[in-house]
Protein backbone atom coordinates (compact mmCIF):
# COMPACT_ATOMS: atom_id res chain seq x y z
CA UNK A 1 0.00 0.00 0.00
CA UNK A 2 1.32 3.47 -0.88
CA UNK A 3 0.14 6.95 -0.11
CA UNK A 4 -0.87 9.30 -2.89
CA UNK A 5 1.41 12.22 -3.58
CA UNK A 6 0.00 15.48 -2.29
CA UNK A 7 1.18 18.99 -2.98
CA UNK A 8 3.65 20.29 -0.43
CA UNK A 9 2.26 22.53 2.26
CA UNK A 10 2.35 26.29 1.51
CA UNK A 11 4.87 26.85 4.29
CA UNK A 12 7.20 24.23 2.84
CA UNK A 13 6.88 25.69 -0.65
CA UNK A 14 7.72 29.15 0.63
CA UNK A 15 10.76 27.84 2.51
CA UNK A 16 12.02 26.17 -0.67
CA UNK A 17 11.48 29.32 -2.71
CA UNK A 18 13.19 31.42 -0.02
CA UNK A 19 16.23 29.13 -0.11
CA UNK A 20 16.77 29.38 -3.86
CA UNK A 21 15.95 33.11 -3.90
CA UNK A 22 18.58 33.69 -1.22
CA UNK A 23 21.08 31.57 -3.13
CA UNK A 24 20.50 33.43 -6.39
CA UNK A 25 20.66 36.85 -4.73
CA UNK A 26 23.57 36.33 -2.35
CA UNK A 27 25.43 34.13 -4.83
CA UNK A 28 24.92 36.73 -7.59
CA UNK A 29 23.82 34.14 -10.12
CA UNK A 30 22.23 35.17 -13.43
CA UNK A 31 19.63 32.43 -12.95
CA UNK A 32 18.95 29.42 -10.76
CA UNK A 33 16.42 26.62 -11.13
CA UNK A 34 15.62 23.81 -8.70
CA UNK A 35 13.15 20.99 -8.16
CA UNK A 36 12.22 18.39 -5.52
CA UNK A 37 10.91 14.85 -5.95
CA UNK A 38 9.12 12.38 -3.64
CA UNK A 39 7.96 8.86 -4.50
CA UNK A 40 9.27 9.34 -8.01
CA UNK A 41 7.14 12.44 -8.69
CA UNK A 42 8.06 16.11 -8.82
CA UNK A 43 6.38 17.88 -5.91
CA UNK A 44 7.95 21.33 -6.27
CA UNK A 45 9.95 23.38 -8.74
CA UNK A 46 11.05 26.98 -8.71
CA UNK A 47 13.48 29.41 -10.27
CA UNK A 48 14.93 32.90 -10.03
CA UNK A 49 16.46 35.11 -12.69
CA UNK A 50 18.07 38.51 -12.99
CA UNK A 51 15.87 39.25 -16.02
CA UNK A 52 12.13 39.62 -15.46
CA UNK A 53 10.10 37.17 -17.49
CA UNK A 54 13.09 34.99 -18.38
CA UNK A 55 13.29 32.66 -15.40
CA UNK A 56 14.25 29.08 -16.40
CA UNK A 57 11.85 26.20 -15.93
CA UNK A 58 12.06 22.41 -15.65
CA UNK A 59 12.66 22.16 -19.41
CA UNK A 60 15.59 24.62 -19.61
CA UNK A 61 18.96 23.00 -20.19
CA UNK A 62 22.02 23.82 -18.07
CA UNK A 63 25.42 22.22 -18.31
CA UNK A 64 25.86 19.70 -15.48
CA UNK A 65 29.63 19.11 -15.48
CA UNK A 66 30.78 16.18 -13.38
CA UNK A 67 27.26 14.91 -12.84
CA UNK A 68 28.05 13.34 -16.23
CA UNK A 69 30.36 10.91 -14.42
CA UNK A 70 27.40 9.20 -12.76
CA UNK A 71 25.93 8.44 -16.18
CA UNK A 72 29.26 6.98 -17.32
CA UNK A 73 29.43 4.85 -14.18
CA UNK A 74 25.95 3.44 -14.89
CA UNK A 75 27.11 2.44 -18.39
CA UNK A 76 30.11 0.59 -16.92
CA UNK A 77 27.95 -1.21 -14.34
CA UNK A 78 25.66 -2.33 -17.17
CA UNK A 79 28.66 -3.95 -18.89
CA UNK A 80 29.49 -5.74 -15.64
CA UNK A 81 25.93 -6.95 -15.19
CA UNK A 82 25.97 -8.38 -18.71
CA UNK A 83 29.12 -10.36 -17.91
CA UNK A 84 31.25 -8.42 -20.39
CA UNK A 85 33.74 -7.39 -17.72
CA UNK A 86 34.47 -7.62 -14.01
CA UNK A 87 35.08 -4.56 -11.86
CA UNK A 88 38.29 -6.15 -10.58
CA UNK A 89 39.61 -6.54 -14.12
CA UNK A 90 42.65 -4.42 -14.94
CA UNK A 91 41.76 -1.80 -17.53
CA UNK A 92 44.49 -3.26 -19.77
CA UNK A 93 42.43 -6.42 -20.22
CA UNK A 94 39.79 -4.54 -22.18
CA UNK A 95 41.56 -1.34 -23.24
CA UNK A 96 45.25 -2.10 -23.81
CA UNK A 97 47.94 0.46 -24.44
CA UNK A 98 46.77 3.26 -22.15
CA UNK A 99 49.95 3.25 -20.09
CA UNK A 100 48.18 3.16 -16.73
CA UNK A 101 49.26 -0.40 -16.00
CA UNK A 102 47.09 -2.68 -13.94
CA UNK A 103 44.68 -0.18 -12.38
CA UNK A 104 41.26 -1.78 -12.10
CA UNK A 105 37.89 -0.67 -13.39
CA UNK A 106 36.67 -0.49 -9.78
CA UNK A 107 39.53 1.86 -8.87
CA UNK A 108 38.72 4.12 -11.82
CA UNK A 109 35.03 4.26 -10.88
CA UNK A 110 35.85 5.23 -7.28
CA UNK A 111 38.75 7.60 -8.06
CA UNK A 112 41.29 5.42 -6.27
CA UNK A 113 43.42 4.52 -9.33
CA UNK A 114 46.04 7.09 -8.33
CA UNK A 115 45.71 9.08 -11.58
CA UNK A 116 46.11 12.84 -11.84
CA UNK A 117 43.14 15.08 -11.20
CA UNK A 118 43.35 16.93 -14.53
CA UNK A 119 44.70 16.58 -18.04
CA UNK A 120 47.86 18.47 -19.06
CA UNK A 121 47.59 22.16 -19.96
CA UNK A 122 45.87 24.04 -21.47
CA UNK A 123 42.89 24.00 -19.09
CA UNK A 124 40.66 21.32 -20.60
CA UNK A 125 37.36 22.87 -19.49
CA UNK A 126 37.91 26.08 -21.53
CA UNK A 127 39.65 24.69 -24.61
CA UNK A 128 38.46 22.51 -27.50
CA UNK A 129 38.68 18.77 -27.05
CA UNK A 130 40.44 18.60 -30.43
CA UNK A 131 43.60 19.72 -28.60
CA UNK A 132 43.63 16.26 -26.95
CA UNK A 133 42.86 13.83 -29.78
CA UNK A 134 44.43 10.76 -28.15
CA UNK A 135 44.19 9.20 -24.68
CA UNK A 136 47.89 9.90 -24.21
CA UNK A 137 47.11 13.62 -24.62
CA UNK A 138 44.52 13.37 -21.83
CA UNK A 139 46.73 11.41 -19.44
CA UNK A 140 50.04 13.21 -20.00
CA UNK A 141 53.43 11.85 -19.01
CA UNK A 142 52.81 11.53 -15.26
CA UNK A 143 49.93 9.07 -15.30
CA UNK A 144 50.13 8.18 -11.60
CA UNK A 145 50.10 10.49 -8.61
CA UNK A 146 49.46 7.88 -5.92
CA UNK A 147 49.64 4.16 -5.32
CA UNK A 148 46.46 2.58 -6.78
CA UNK A 149 43.82 1.51 -4.28
CA UNK A 150 45.27 3.33 -1.28
CA UNK A 151 43.51 6.68 -1.32
CA UNK A 152 40.74 8.64 -2.98
CA UNK A 153 42.13 11.14 -5.47
CA UNK A 154 39.53 12.64 -7.80
CA UNK A 155 40.49 12.12 -11.45
CA UNK A 156 38.78 13.57 -14.51
CA UNK A 157 41.11 11.64 -16.88
CA UNK A 158 40.06 8.46 -15.08
CA UNK A 159 36.52 8.90 -16.38
CA UNK A 160 37.86 9.60 -19.86
CA UNK A 161 39.34 6.10 -19.67
CA UNK A 162 36.01 4.67 -18.55
CA UNK A 163 34.27 6.36 -21.46
CA UNK A 164 36.84 4.86 -23.82
CA UNK A 165 36.24 1.48 -22.18
CA UNK A 166 32.50 1.75 -22.88
CA UNK A 167 33.22 2.60 -26.50
CA UNK A 168 35.64 -0.29 -26.91
CA UNK A 169 33.34 -2.93 -25.42
CA UNK A 170 30.15 -1.65 -27.10
CA UNK A 171 31.71 -0.79 -30.46
CA UNK A 172 29.90 2.57 -30.54
CA UNK A 173 30.56 6.11 -29.35
CA UNK A 174 30.02 7.03 -25.70
CA UNK A 175 27.27 9.46 -26.71
CA UNK A 176 25.43 6.80 -28.75
CA UNK A 177 25.63 4.23 -25.96
CA UNK A 178 24.44 6.82 -23.44
CA UNK A 179 21.46 7.73 -25.61
CA UNK A 180 20.43 4.13 -26.33
CA UNK A 181 20.97 2.66 -22.85
CA UNK A 182 20.03 5.45 -20.41
CA UNK A 183 18.45 8.52 -21.97
CA UNK A 184 15.90 6.87 -24.26
CA UNK A 185 14.73 4.17 -21.79
CA UNK A 186 14.22 6.75 -19.03
CA UNK A 187 12.56 9.31 -21.30
CA UNK A 188 15.36 11.84 -20.72
CA UNK A 189 14.77 13.62 -24.03
CA UNK A 190 16.17 16.93 -22.76
CA UNK A 191 19.61 15.55 -21.85
CA UNK A 192 22.28 15.75 -24.53
CA UNK A 193 26.02 16.21 -25.14
CA UNK A 194 25.37 19.58 -26.79
CA UNK A 195 22.89 22.32 -25.85
CA UNK A 196 19.40 22.36 -27.32
CA UNK A 197 17.03 25.29 -26.98
CA UNK A 198 15.82 26.41 -24.58
CA UNK A 199 19.14 26.46 -22.72
CA UNK A 200 20.96 28.85 -20.42
CA UNK A 201 24.15 30.63 -21.41
CA UNK A 202 27.14 30.32 -19.11
CA UNK A 203 28.49 33.42 -17.37
CA UNK A 204 31.36 34.48 -15.14
CA UNK A 205 30.36 37.12 -12.59
CA UNK A 206 33.09 39.57 -11.53
CA UNK A 207 34.00 38.95 -7.87
CA UNK A 208 34.07 42.67 -6.94
CA UNK A 209 31.54 44.26 -9.30
CA UNK A 210 28.09 43.43 -10.60
CA UNK A 211 29.21 42.78 -14.17
CA UNK A 212 29.40 39.57 -16.20
CA UNK A 213 31.52 37.90 -18.85
CA UNK A 214 30.30 35.09 -21.16
CA UNK A 215 32.08 31.75 -20.77
CA UNK A 216 32.94 29.49 -23.71
CA UNK A 217 30.98 26.25 -24.11
CA UNK A 218 33.57 23.88 -25.54
CA UNK A 219 33.07 20.38 -26.88
CA UNK A 220 35.29 18.39 -24.52
CA UNK A 221 36.13 15.61 -26.97
CA UNK A 222 37.64 12.61 -25.19
CA UNK A 223 36.93 14.27 -21.83
CA UNK A 224 33.17 14.18 -22.51
CA UNK A 225 32.45 11.19 -20.21
CA UNK A 226 33.80 13.29 -17.32
CA UNK A 227 31.67 16.41 -17.82
CA UNK A 228 30.05 17.04 -21.20
CA UNK A 229 26.32 16.75 -20.60
CA UNK A 230 23.55 19.35 -20.63
CA UNK A 231 20.31 18.53 -18.81
CA UNK A 232 17.23 19.89 -17.03
CA UNK A 233 15.75 19.57 -13.57
CA UNK A 234 12.96 17.43 -15.02
CA UNK A 235 15.34 14.96 -16.62
CA UNK A 236 17.68 14.82 -13.64
CA UNK A 237 14.82 13.87 -11.34
CA UNK A 238 14.04 10.98 -13.70
CA UNK A 239 17.68 9.95 -13.31
CA UNK A 240 17.35 10.34 -9.53
CA UNK A 241 14.55 7.78 -9.51
CA UNK A 242 16.90 5.29 -11.16
CA UNK A 243 19.65 5.99 -8.61
CA UNK A 244 17.21 5.60 -5.72
CA UNK A 245 15.42 2.38 -6.65
CA UNK A 246 16.96 0.96 -9.81
CA UNK A 247 15.13 0.30 -13.05
CA UNK A 248 15.50 -3.04 -14.83
CA UNK A 249 15.42 -1.26 -18.17
CA UNK A 250 18.71 0.42 -17.26
CA UNK A 251 20.33 -0.86 -14.05
CA UNK A 252 18.96 -3.22 -11.40
CA UNK A 253 18.44 -2.17 -7.78
CA UNK A 254 21.33 -4.32 -6.49
CA UNK A 255 23.83 -2.62 -8.82
CA UNK A 256 22.52 0.83 -7.95
CA UNK A 257 22.92 -0.04 -4.27
CA UNK A 258 26.52 -1.08 -4.96
CA UNK A 259 27.19 2.33 -6.48
CA UNK A 260 26.29 3.89 -3.13
CA UNK A 261 28.82 1.86 -1.12
CA UNK A 262 32.08 3.66 -0.18
CA UNK A 263 34.79 2.43 -2.53
CA UNK A 264 38.05 3.87 -1.20
CA UNK A 265 39.60 5.39 1.94
CA UNK A 266 38.80 9.08 2.42
CA UNK A 267 41.30 11.78 3.23
CA UNK A 268 42.60 11.70 6.80
CA UNK A 269 40.09 13.36 9.12
CA UNK A 270 37.39 13.62 6.44
CA UNK A 271 34.48 11.65 7.87
CA UNK A 272 31.71 13.75 6.32
CA UNK A 273 32.10 12.59 2.73
CA UNK A 274 33.07 9.55 0.72
CA UNK A 275 32.82 8.25 -2.84
CA UNK A 276 31.11 5.16 -4.18
CA UNK A 277 31.12 4.08 -7.82
CA UNK A 278 30.32 7.26 -9.69
CA UNK A 279 28.42 8.70 -6.72
CA UNK A 280 29.41 11.14 -4.00
CA UNK A 281 28.27 10.29 -0.47
CA UNK A 282 27.91 13.09 2.11
CA UNK A 283 26.57 13.70 5.57
CA UNK A 284 24.15 16.62 5.77
CA UNK A 285 23.10 17.16 9.35
CA UNK A 286 21.61 13.90 10.56
CA UNK A 287 21.09 12.33 7.13
CA UNK A 288 23.18 10.68 4.47
CA UNK A 289 22.86 11.95 0.92
CA UNK A 290 24.19 10.51 -2.31
CA UNK A 291 24.39 12.00 -5.76
CA UNK A 292 26.91 14.25 -7.47
CA UNK A 293 27.88 17.87 -7.96
CA UNK A 294 29.20 19.36 -11.16
CA UNK A 295 30.89 22.47 -12.49
CA UNK A 296 32.20 23.76 -15.79
CA UNK A 297 32.99 27.38 -16.67
CA UNK A 298 29.65 29.17 -16.56
CA UNK A 299 27.69 26.44 -14.77
CA UNK A 300 27.17 24.71 -11.40
CA UNK A 301 24.95 21.70 -10.71
CA UNK A 302 23.99 19.39 -7.86
CA UNK A 303 21.73 16.37 -7.38
CA UNK A 304 21.23 14.86 -3.92
CA UNK A 305 19.01 11.98 -2.82
CA UNK A 306 18.00 10.77 0.64
CA UNK A 307 16.77 7.19 0.58
CA UNK A 308 15.57 7.33 4.18
CA UNK A 309 13.39 10.38 3.50
CA UNK A 310 12.44 9.46 -0.09
CA UNK A 311 13.42 12.95 -1.22
CA UNK A 312 15.59 14.03 -4.16
CA UNK A 313 16.55 17.59 -5.05
CA UNK A 314 18.36 19.15 -7.99
CA UNK A 315 19.70 22.69 -8.35
CA UNK A 316 21.26 24.23 -11.47
CA UNK A 317 22.74 27.68 -12.09
CA UNK A 318 24.60 29.44 -14.91
CA UNK A 319 27.59 31.01 -13.21
CA UNK A 320 31.19 29.88 -12.83
CA UNK A 321 31.19 30.53 -9.09
CA UNK A 322 28.83 32.05 -6.57
CA UNK A 323 26.06 29.96 -5.01
CA UNK A 324 27.30 26.90 -3.13
CA UNK A 325 25.00 24.81 -5.25
CA UNK A 326 25.71 21.52 -3.50
CA UNK A 327 24.62 23.09 -0.23
CA UNK A 328 21.52 24.54 -1.87
CA UNK A 329 20.34 21.14 -3.14
CA UNK A 330 21.12 19.53 0.24
CA UNK A 331 19.12 22.22 2.02
CA UNK A 332 16.14 21.58 -0.25
CA UNK A 333 16.18 17.92 0.81
CA UNK A 334 16.42 18.93 4.46
CA UNK A 335 13.57 21.46 4.21
CA UNK A 336 11.12 18.90 2.85
CA UNK A 337 12.29 16.05 5.08
CA UNK A 338 12.06 18.15 8.25
CA UNK A 339 8.83 20.00 7.46
CA UNK A 340 6.95 17.03 6.04
CA UNK A 341 8.53 13.78 7.30
CA UNK A 342 8.00 10.68 5.25
CA UNK A 343 4.89 8.78 6.29
CA UNK A 344 5.87 5.12 6.69
CA UNK A 345 4.04 2.37 4.89
CA UNK A 346 1.51 0.51 7.09
CA UNK A 347 2.79 -2.60 8.78
CA UNK A 348 1.51 -5.82 7.22
CA UNK A 349 2.21 -9.44 8.18
CA UNK A 350 4.10 -11.69 5.80
CA UNK A 351 1.96 -13.60 3.31
CA UNK A 352 3.31 -16.84 4.77
CA UNK A 353 5.69 -17.93 7.52
CA UNK A 354 8.60 -20.35 7.22
CA UNK A 355 8.28 -22.40 10.43
CA UNK A 356 11.94 -23.47 10.38
CA UNK A 357 13.09 -19.90 9.95
CA UNK A 358 10.68 -18.66 12.60
CA UNK A 359 12.21 -21.12 15.07
CA UNK A 360 15.60 -19.41 14.67
CA UNK A 361 14.34 -15.98 15.66
CA UNK A 362 14.68 -14.47 19.10
CA UNK A 363 17.56 -14.03 21.56
CA UNK A 364 21.03 -15.47 20.90
CA UNK A 365 24.07 -14.91 23.10
CA UNK A 366 27.62 -14.28 21.99
CA UNK A 367 29.26 -15.18 25.27
CA UNK A 368 27.19 -13.13 27.69
CA UNK A 369 26.13 -10.43 25.24
CA UNK A 370 22.47 -10.69 24.17
CA UNK A 371 21.66 -10.37 20.47
CA UNK A 372 18.42 -10.86 18.62
CA UNK A 373 17.76 -12.59 15.31
CA UNK A 374 14.76 -11.38 13.33
CA UNK A 375 13.05 -12.42 10.13
CA UNK A 376 13.32 -9.69 7.52
CA UNK A 377 10.36 -8.79 5.28
CA UNK A 378 12.33 -9.99 2.24
CA UNK A 379 12.78 -13.49 3.67
CA UNK A 380 16.26 -12.87 5.00
CA UNK A 381 17.55 -12.61 8.56
CA UNK A 382 18.72 -9.63 10.58
CA UNK A 383 21.10 -9.97 13.54
CA UNK A 384 21.82 -7.15 15.95
CA UNK A 385 22.36 -6.29 19.60
CA UNK A 386 19.31 -6.50 21.84
CA UNK A 387 20.10 -3.05 23.23
CA UNK A 388 22.50 -0.26 22.40
CA UNK A 389 25.20 -0.26 19.74
CA UNK A 390 27.00 -3.32 18.53
CA UNK A 391 27.75 -5.52 15.58
CA UNK A 392 24.93 -6.42 13.28
CA UNK A 393 24.14 -7.37 9.72
CA UNK A 394 21.51 -8.52 7.29
CA UNK A 395 21.82 -12.03 5.85
CA UNK A 396 20.50 -13.70 2.74
CA UNK A 397 20.12 -17.43 2.20
CA UNK A 398 22.45 -19.54 0.08
CA UNK A 399 21.38 -22.71 -1.74
CA UNK A 400 23.56 -24.86 0.56
CA UNK A 401 21.59 -23.83 3.65
CA UNK A 402 24.08 -21.24 4.91
CA UNK A 403 23.59 -17.49 5.07
CA UNK A 404 25.86 -14.72 3.79
CA UNK A 405 26.25 -11.31 5.47
CA UNK A 406 25.19 -8.36 3.32
CA UNK A 407 26.44 -5.41 5.34
CA UNK A 408 27.91 -4.23 8.62
CA UNK A 409 30.68 -6.04 10.51
CA UNK A 410 29.63 -9.41 9.11
CA UNK A 411 29.46 -8.39 5.42
CA UNK A 412 30.63 -11.39 3.39
CA UNK A 413 30.83 -13.65 6.46
CA UNK A 414 29.01 -17.00 6.52
CA UNK A 415 26.35 -17.85 9.09
CA UNK A 416 25.95 -21.61 9.73
CA UNK A 417 23.06 -23.13 11.66
CA UNK A 418 24.75 -26.00 13.50
CA UNK A 419 22.37 -28.81 14.43
CA UNK A 420 22.42 -31.78 16.77
CA UNK A 421 22.00 -35.32 15.50
CA UNK A 422 18.22 -35.12 16.00
CA UNK A 423 17.97 -31.97 13.88
CA UNK A 424 17.55 -29.51 16.76
CA UNK A 425 19.70 -26.39 16.70
CA UNK A 426 22.84 -26.52 18.84
CA UNK A 427 24.24 -23.07 18.05
CA UNK A 428 24.89 -20.52 15.33
CA UNK A 429 28.40 -20.23 13.90
CA UNK A 430 29.12 -16.80 12.43
CA UNK A 431 32.69 -16.43 11.20
CA UNK A 432 33.82 -18.76 14.04
CA UNK A 433 31.82 -16.84 16.66
CA UNK A 434 29.40 -19.11 18.50
CA UNK A 435 25.93 -17.82 19.37
CA UNK A 436 23.92 -19.86 21.87
CA UNK A 437 20.36 -19.75 23.21
CA UNK A 438 21.60 -19.25 26.78
CA UNK A 439 24.73 -17.41 27.95
CA UNK A 440 27.56 -19.99 27.65
CA UNK A 441 25.02 -22.78 27.21
CA UNK A 442 26.71 -25.99 28.49
CA UNK A 443 24.67 -28.02 25.99
CA UNK A 444 26.17 -26.10 23.05
CA UNK A 445 29.59 -26.41 21.46
CA UNK A 446 31.11 -23.37 23.18
CA UNK A 447 34.82 -22.97 22.31
CA UNK A 448 36.93 -23.67 25.37
CA UNK A 449 34.04 -25.41 27.10
CA UNK A 450 31.93 -24.25 30.04
CA UNK A 451 33.05 -24.59 33.64
CA UNK A 452 31.31 -27.61 35.16
CA UNK A 453 30.54 -25.67 38.37
CA UNK A 454 28.18 -23.43 36.44
CA UNK A 455 27.20 -19.90 37.33
CA UNK A 456 27.89 -18.87 40.94
CA UNK A 457 27.89 -15.94 43.33
CA UNK A 458 30.88 -14.16 44.83
CA UNK A 459 31.42 -16.87 47.48
CA UNK A 460 30.62 -19.79 45.21
From TrEMBL:
Gene3D superfamilies: DD-peptidase/beta-lactamase superfamily (3.40.710.10)
GO function terms (MF aspect): hydrolase activity
UniProt enzyme class: hydrolase
Identification of the protein by name: Serine hydrolase domain-containing protein
All copies of domain Beta-lactamase-related, residue ranges: 21-336
Listed Pfam families: Beta-lactamase (PF00144), DUF7586 (PF24491)
Keywords, sorted A to Z: Hydrolase
InterPro entries the record matches: AmpC-like, Beta-lactam-related, Beta-lactam/transpept-like, DUF7586
Native source species: Streptomyces pulveraceus
Domain DUF7586: 354-437
EC number: 3.-.-.-
Amino acid sequence: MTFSIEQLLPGTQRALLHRIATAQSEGRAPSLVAAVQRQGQTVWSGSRSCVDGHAPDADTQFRIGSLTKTFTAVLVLRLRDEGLLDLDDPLEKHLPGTGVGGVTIHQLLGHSAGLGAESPAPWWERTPGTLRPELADVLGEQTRMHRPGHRHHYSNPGYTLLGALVEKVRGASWAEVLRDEILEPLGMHRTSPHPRSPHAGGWAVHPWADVMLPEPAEDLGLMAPAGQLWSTTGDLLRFAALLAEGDDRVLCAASVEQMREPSAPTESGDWQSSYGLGLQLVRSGSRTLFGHTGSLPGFLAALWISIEDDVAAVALTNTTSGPMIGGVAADLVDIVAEAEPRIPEPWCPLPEADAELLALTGPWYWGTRPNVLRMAPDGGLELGPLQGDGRGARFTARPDGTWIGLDGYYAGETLHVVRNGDGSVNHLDLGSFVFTREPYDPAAAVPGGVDEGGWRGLEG
